[in-house]
Write a structure and sequence with these properties.
The structure is a homotrimer. Chain A contains 10 helices and 11 strands. By secondary structure, chain A is of the alpha/beta class. In chain A, helix 3 packs across helix 4 and helix 5 packs across helix 10. Chains A, B, C: Pathway: Pyrimidine metabolism; UMP biosynthesis via de novo pathway; (S)-dihydroorotate from bicarbonate: step 2/3.
């Protein structure tokens, strides 16, 4: 039994390197099930309450499929309009009631700290699927997990690596949380590339510096990528800007394409992006001409998200050692051969 | 085989004391599955059509989870906009088609008697999950079931008890249906506390009187609770008022908190509320300072709702005697220890 | 292994008579499972991504139930608003990511050819559930399957039959696709009955003529039905008209009821309609007084849709020969006795 059994996963700040390693080890054990080489019914009969009070198709579907892949049922809700919260119910009451209906809950909500408040009323483990501007811990974990896996192909580890973060570093929640996780590691070089108006918040920079890492801050993409092992691109978070005009000023400011990559990056620099990328002509921060490049890790990131979420369900429900016991063969056509 | 197998559950008026007892007995058998002490796959492979033409997160999720707890699949629809009903299709046609896709249907719809009309075209049993201002029989059943269980702790039964109903007795559908079920019992004292404008409809009062029960009608909370065994509070049903201003006149009119409870109620008066309660300062009909009071039964009500819905699925599908046959152990972390 | 294993089903134009026969044979094998005489767990553990970027309750639920009937899980999305497509993501990216989460995808989208574009990025088979004005191949297949089954009761086949198509032949996508499938057969007589403004598009007429079939085009219902073996009625597709006023001009123009049927049709002319039918008084293209007529095949069409979708899932996932291997009895009340 791990520290996770019966616990909530609310913030990356509740994790240390040991517990992160535990999660990553279980995530690795999930690979054959996600690839459909075999399947497991370890959570057959269990129910996930997939409560998305703020819609997010991809994250919701990813949590739901992760649970299905372990054999469980999923009950969902999307949006706030028809929920009792709109009739003045407290998050505590909502949690007391809805947590009776499931064995574990994944929750997204537009308000910071709402998931924590909900968790206090819940009778079952709650996993934070994003609480507005605050945290999105499963995204941070899948990003770190991806970095670790990608660098291992070149024999590298996270300690000592060089990461360049590019784009909207102000509103891009994922770079904040990832930085926090990287602070637990040693001797990392950060290159932060953004317009001054969209630069990394001061508290994140302070955290990085206090952890003893090196930071370079610049507005220039070209010329600053040569040493990067990881290139982490972000979308301009238009929906968080005061106006569309304001957002438009920055769309298309930084663009990576095959030509720029070849000219300015090492040959094996890993390209990451939390997705969705904006592929409209006026934005296009990461061009489709890199789609078949072996260093493009963006779809492997999404795949890893599934593994991380499967791992967190297994750990909070304490079944991480029973996966094999409930294994079955996959008797249908599966995509594994294509990958 | 009971009278329920293959039948619709449309109204409390189709039930008598015997059939209610049958439902309650099966609901009691559901307790260990809902508490996750063990599980049953009795409805593995069966499909619930969870058709919510009017959104209601909680009731929808409760029906869905009840079906999952019996091992079945759930297919859902929410809202009317994208349904064929908006293109002029009759409820009969909708029922003929959608009932081919499932083994049992739970349905909510904004129009009175719509569920009955739908049931006439359905090839499978239909359970009314609320048809607008008309009925919500599973809520009435869970309320009665809760009263019975709570009173049994003090060695009491429903016959001879004293119930105080408080708040919006005009628009609060649950107090109407519950009264109807209580009319089947003997020698009950009703204290009805509401503003004159929100008082219990005349036809409900007539039913209660015709059944030989005693009624006290008052606008005053304090001083009228001393003899109540059950205190049934309701929320002002703002959404049913002609205007928000009209609703605001009554918000916060009756409030129960720890102080008032201690001063005006017997020490074991059971506190019930159909939920959601409005916890905003201007309403707050039931204060959070009673949250840990042992007589607060509001969350046990919600738990009982799950048992009642499981029982109705088992009965309409005729599997109430096969639960044990399909039992399995629960191999994951479960909340049972916390309760 | 058939040609379908691992393939997309995007258009009826990818099918020939042989492959259609393969689908129909598997669909026939699905009948006892759909009728609940027994069940199969052949796809237990598999996940359907039911992606409805344009809402359609009935088609979505039909795909989902078809997958549940084979034992699989269903993850869904409805509408476009909360999807990454609204943030500028390409269909290719959406497909790369979402196809990681499932074993097969059913997709509806408002734009023509969008499903094909999506399929190019997908790692798993994609079944077109309707791509706007373009195609809806499962509807066309279920229509043809229905014609074949219904005519076989009179010892007839599709070759040589006479079909009358009535109503909105311009915007009614189903009559276009069905015509395409009928073109693969021999010696069919088409009677096309519509207002001139809503007549069958020229390219469909050209296809029919090129295939050597006979066409009669008329604006008159009465007097043109005497020889029809199949009467295929359609709803005025109001939502595709430039204005409601424009649509109103044609509502109620053609109506079939018991009286007209008896007077103008052969005694066993099969009545079909893709549903929903508009039963409001001002439209009412197919009257309820025919509801119990044995030649009314409209609800059998919907039933057949389930069989066709089950067949396509089984074929694309290559399990069509394993259905019996994973059979189980149905242990609950089932509607089979009523049919």
């Amino acid at each position: 039994m791990t520290q996770f059994e019966g616990s909530h996963i609310l913030s990356v700040s509740q994790l240390d390197l040991d517990s992160i390693n535990t999660i990553f080890n279980v995530a690795n054990k999930m690979t054959p099930y996600a690839l459909r080489e075999k399947r497991t019914k370890v959570l057959e009969g269990a129910i996930l309450g997939n409560l998305f009070f703020e819609p997010s198709t991809r994250t919701r579907v990813s949590f739901g499929c992760a649970f299905n892949l372990l054999g469980g049922h999923v009950r969902e809700t999307t949006g706030m309009a028809s929920s009792s919260l709109s009739k003045g119910e407290s998050l505590y009451d909502t949690a007391r009631v809805l947590s009776t209906y499931s064995d574990v809950i994944a929750m997204r909500h537009p308000d910071a700290y709402s998931v924590k408040e909900f968790a206090e009323g819940s009778r079952v483990p709650v996993i934070n699927g994003g609480d507005g501007p605050n945290e999105h811990p499963t995204q941070a974990l899948l990003d770190l997990f991806t970095i670790k896996k990608e660098l291992s192909h070149s024999g590298m580890g996270i300690d000592g690596m060089h990461i360049a973060m590019v784009g909207d570093l102000k509103y891009g929640r994922t770079v904040h949380s990832l930085s926090r996780l990287l602070c637990m590691h040693k001797d990392i070089k950060f290159t932060l590339i953004s317009p001054t108006e969209l630069s990394m918040p001061d508290y994140v920079i302070a955290d990085i510096e206090n952890a003893g890492h090196k930071i370079t801050i610049t507005e220039q993409l070209e010329g600053n990528l040569h040493h990067a092992d990881i290139l982490y691109l972000t979308r301009i978070q238009e929906e968080r800007f005061p106006s569309q005009e304001e957002a438009n000023k920055y769309r298309g400011k930084f663009r990576l394409n095959h030509n720029i990559y070849t000219q300015h990056c090492k040959s094996n620099t890993v390209i990451m992006h939390p997705l969705p990328r904006d592929s409209r002509a006026q934005a296009n921060e990461l061009d489709n001409d890199l789609n078949s490049h072996p260093s493009l890790a963006i779809f492997r990131q999404a795949d890893n998200g599934l593994l991380i979420r499967m791992a967190l369900f297994a750990l909070t429900l304490g079944v991480e050692d029973q996966l094999e016991k409930y294994e079955c063969p996959v008797n249908w056509y599966s995509r594994k051969a294509d990958r």
